[in-house]
Amino acid sequence: MPDLCLALLQQDLEYLLQQQLADWQQMVEFSINFIEHHRVRCLNFYHLLILQNQEIISQDTITKLLELYLAQTLQSQFNYQLLKKHSVEIKFVVGGILYQLKKWFDSQLKLAAVDVIESMNCGLSLLEDTLIMEH
After folding, report:
1. Cα separation, 66 vs 63, whole angstroms
2. Is this model's pTM higher than 0.85 or not?
């Protein structure tokens, strides 16, 4: 049974990643609304992952998505160097996103989705401002 649940979780994650979303904020909103709409299913997945000592989503996955978004936002040949220069800040933002997700799931998804979305986008706004000023 756990293998079936993990396969369904992988299918849900692939569905989320295949969405044609214009920017990071839309991806966050779509993902949080998806989780809220499939509340019981997502909580069951979360508890199963905890029992199997696995992450709900990896830090590497979020880092890649965030770097892709930032590179598209900056649209410059210097993107790679700028992102590399700010790798610590990117890791910090990713850590905040993972913390907010864990906090939300640990509360049994009781926090309002709008508050979770705002929390997940807060660090990114600060990082974007820094990168744009240097760009």
Report:
1. 5
2. no
- Distance CA(36)–CA(7), nearest Å, equals 20
Q: Where are the beta strands (DSSP E) in the chain?
A: none
Q: Tell me the per-residue pLDDT of 100-130, one tens digit each, with 9 for 90 and over.
A: 999 999 999 999 999 999 988 887 777 777 7
Q: How many residues does the chain have?
A: 135
- Give me 21's structure tokens: 């979303």
Long-range interactions of 24-30: CB distance < 8 A, separation 24+: 24/65, 24/66, 24/69, 24/121, 24/124, 25/117, 25/121, 27/65, 27/69, 28/117, 28/120, 28/121, 29/117
Q: What is the pLDDT of residues 9-18, one digit of tens each?
A: 667 667 766 6
Q: Which of 74, 77, 60, 58 is nearest to 9 (CA)?
A: 58
For 47-73, give the DSSP string.
HHHHHTT--SS-HHHHHHHHHHHHHHH
Half-sphere exposure of 100 (CA within 13 A, CB side): 22
Output the CA–CA distances (angstroms, integers) from residue 58 to 61, 65, 101, 117, in the order listed.
5, 11, 12, 19
